[in-house]
Design brief:
Distance between the termini: 30 Å
Radius of gyration: 47 Å
Strand content: 15-25%
Number of helices: 9
Strand order of the largest sheet: 1-6-5-3-2-4
Shape: rod-shaped
Largest sheet: 6 strands, mixed
Length: 491
C-alpha cells in the first residue's frame, strides 16, 4: 500500500514525459519521411534539368561558328591578332583568344582533338577520360553543334578550342552547359544512399530513444542487496532521468519506512521483554503448579513470537557476507546434528558423477560409462549461516508435521536442487500458495498445538530469494509433502 501511495504522485510528470517521448519519435519519423520524399523530388528535378540542358546544348554551335567567322573577317580586314578578335555578349558563352601553337589548357585537364571537323577543333575536360569526338558535318555550325552536345555529355568543366585562319585559337566556355553534374547512375546511388540513411535513422532513432528505458527497466529488476539497493542511473533523456529520479525517491522513501518500522518493532520488543521478565518472576510464586505451567508457556510463546518476528523483519540474511560454501558438507552436518539428538532425519548424498564415453574412430565403437565414487562437495556462493537456518526450518517443519524428514540433494553445473520430504498428510492444493505468507498457519495437523508462529516458511522463502533461488511445494503421490529448493551455484 505504501508503494501505491508514493509512486503515482511522483511518476505523473514522467508519464507526461513518456508521452512527449512518443510524440518526438513520431515527429522524427515523419520528418525523415518528408526529407526522403523531398530529396527524391529534388533528384527528379535535377534529372529533368540535366536532360533539358543536354537537349538544348546544340544551340551553342551556331553562336561559336558566328564568333569564329567574325574573327576571321576581322583578320582579313587587317585587325591585329589578339584579344580584340574575341566577341562578347554571346548567349551562354564566354570567349577568349589564344595565340598560335598548341592551346594552353588548365592544369590537370585532358585535351583531345575532334575528328572530321571542317577546321582544327580541340576539347579539354577537367579530370575525365575523353572519348573520341566526331563532328562529321557539312558546315562549321553543324560541326560545332555536335561538339557542344558531346561536350555537355561529359558532365564536367570543359573548354572548346577552334583554330582561326591566322593560326590563333578561340577558347569557348559555357558555365551553363559545360559544367560538373552528376550522372544518372550517381544520382540513383545518391538516392539509394539517402533512402538507406533515412531508413537507418528510422530504425536507429526509436531504439536510441527507447534504449535508456530498457536499461532503466533492467537496472530496476536486477537482483541485488535489498537492504542497500543501488540507485538507478539518472542519465539519458530528460524523461528517463526524471523517471529514474522518481523511482529512486520512492524506493528511498520505502526503505526509510521499512527501517523505521523495524526500529519501532525493536523498541517494542525491548519494552516487552522487561514486563515479560517480571511476569516470569511473578509466575514463579504461583502455588498452583498447573496454573504456573500455563502462565510460563504463555510467556515463552509470547517471547518466541516477538523474537521470530524481529528475525523475519530484520533481513539478517542480507547483512551476511557471501562466500564459497561446501554445500553438501553443510547440509550433511545439519542432518547429523538432528540425528545425534534422536530426530528421525535421513540424508541422501548427491549421486556420484557419471560420464558416458563418446564414440570415436579410436574407440572401436565400444560404448562405456565412467562412474566416480568420490564424495561431491557441491560448492556454491552463498551465506552459510542463512542457508543453514533455512534448511533447519524446513527439517523442523518436516519433523513436526510429517513425523520424519528425508533430505536429498543433486546438482549440475548451474544449480543445486534440494528436496526435503516428510510422511505427513501434506497440504491442500488450494493452500500451497498461502503457506509462504507471514503468520499463516493451516488447520489440521498444522495447528498451534505443534508450536511455531507461522513465520518458518516465510523466513525460508526470504533466504532463498536473497540467494536468487526458488522454492516449490508439492504433495507426493506416496503421501507427504515435498519442499524443493533450487539455488544457483553463482550469485
Amino acid at each position: 500500500m505504501a508503494l501505491e501511495r508514493l509512486l503515482p504522485a511522483r511518476l505523473s510528470p514522467s508519464r507526461l514525459g513518456a508521452a512527449r517521448l512518443r510524440h518526438r519519435i513520431l515527429a522524427a519519423m515523419v520528418a525523415l519521411l518528408v526529407l526522403t520524399h523531398g530529396g527524391a523530388l529534388v533528384g527528379m528535378q535535377l534529372v529533368d534539368d540535366r536532360a533539358r540542358e543536354l537537349l538544348t546544348a546544340h544551340r551553342l554551335g551556331p553562336s561559336m561558328a558566328a564568333a569564329v567567322e567574325a574573327a576571321d573577317r576581322a583578320l582579313l580586314d587587317g585587325i591585329a591578332a589578339g584579344p580584340a578578335l574575341a566577341l562578347s555578349g554571346l548567349p551562354d558563352l564566354s570567349v577568349s583568344w589564344q595565340g598560335p601553337g598548341t592551346p594552353a589548357v588548365p592544369s590537370g585537364w585532358m585535351m583531345e582533338g575532334v575528328v572530321d571537323a571542317p577546321r582544327p577543333v580541340f576539347v579539354a575536360v577537367q579530370r575525365a577520360l575523353l572519348s573520341v569526338h566526331s563532328a562529321r558535318a557539312q558546315t562549321l555550325a553543324e560541326s560545332l553543334s555536335l561538339v557542344a552536345e558531346d561536350t555537355a555529355a561529359q558532365l564536367r568543366d570543359a573548354r572548346v578550342y577552334v583554330q582561326l585562319a591566322g593560326g590563333g585559337w578561340l577558347e569557348f566556355a559555357s558555365p551553363r552547359f559545360w559544367r560538373p553534374r552528376t550522372t544518372p547512375f550517381e544520382m540513383v546511388l545518391a538516392g539509394l544512399a539517402a533512402f538507406g540513411l533515412a531508413l537507418g535513422l528510422l530504425l536507429w532513432l526509436p531504439g536510441r530513444l527507447v534504449r535508456p528505458l530498457e536499461s532503466l527497466a533492467e537496472q530496476a529488476t536486477r537482483p541485488h542487496d535489498r537492504l542497500h539497493p543501488r540507485p538507478l542511473p539518472e542519465d539519458g533523456p530528460e524523461e528517463v532521468a526524471s523517471l529514474a529520479r522518481a523511482f529512486n525517491q520512492a524506493r528511498n522513501a520505502l526503505r526509510d519506512l521499512m527501517e523505521g518500522r523495524t526500529h519501532l518493532l525493536a523498541a517494542i520488543s525491548h519494552d516487552l521483554r522487561t514486563p515479560a521478565t517480571r511476569l516470569r518472576l511473578r509466575a514463579e510464586y504461583v502455588d498452583d503448579d498447573a496454573l504456573r505451567a500455563k502462565m510460563m508457556a504463555d510467556i515463552d510463546e509470547m517471547a518466541a513470537m516477538v523474537t521470530a518476528t524481529l528475525e523475519f523483519l530484520g533481513d539478517d540474511v542480507l547483512r551476511e557476507e557471501v562466500e564459497v560454501v561446501a554445500f553438501a558438507s553443510l547440509l550433511q552436518s545439519l542432518c547429523d546434528d538432528y540425528a545425534d539428538t534422536g530426530s528421525p532425519v535421513t540424508y541422501h548424498e548427491p549421486p556420484p558423477l557419471q560420464f558416458a564415453a563418446v564414440r570415436t574412430i579410436f574407440g572401436g565403437g565400444v560404448e562405456r560409462s565412467d562412474r566416480f565414487e568420490q564424495a561431491r562437495q557441491l560448492r556454491l556462493a552463498g551465506r552459510p549461516s542463512s542457508l543453514r537456518r533455512a534448511f533447519a526450518n524446513l527439517i523442523d517443519n518436516a519433523i513436526k508435521y510429517g513425523e520424519r524428514a528425508t533430505v536429498s540433494v543433486d546438482a549440475d553445473a548451474v544449480e543445486i536442487v534440494v528436496d526435503v520430504c516428510d510422511e505427513g498428510p501434506g497440504i491442500p492444493e488450494a493452500e500451497i500458495a498461502n503457506v509462504f505468507k507471514p503468520f499463516v498457519r493451516l488447520e489440521g495437523s498444522r495447528n498451534r498445538k505443534t508450536g511455531g508462529s507461522g513465520l518458518g516458511l516465510s523466513i525460508v522463502k526470504s533466504i532463498v530469494e536473497a540467494h536468487q533461488g526458488r522454492i516449490e511445494l508439492s504433495n507426493r503421490a506416496s503421501g507427504g509433502l515435498r519442499v524443493r529448493v533450487t539455488l544457483p551455484r553463482m550469485l
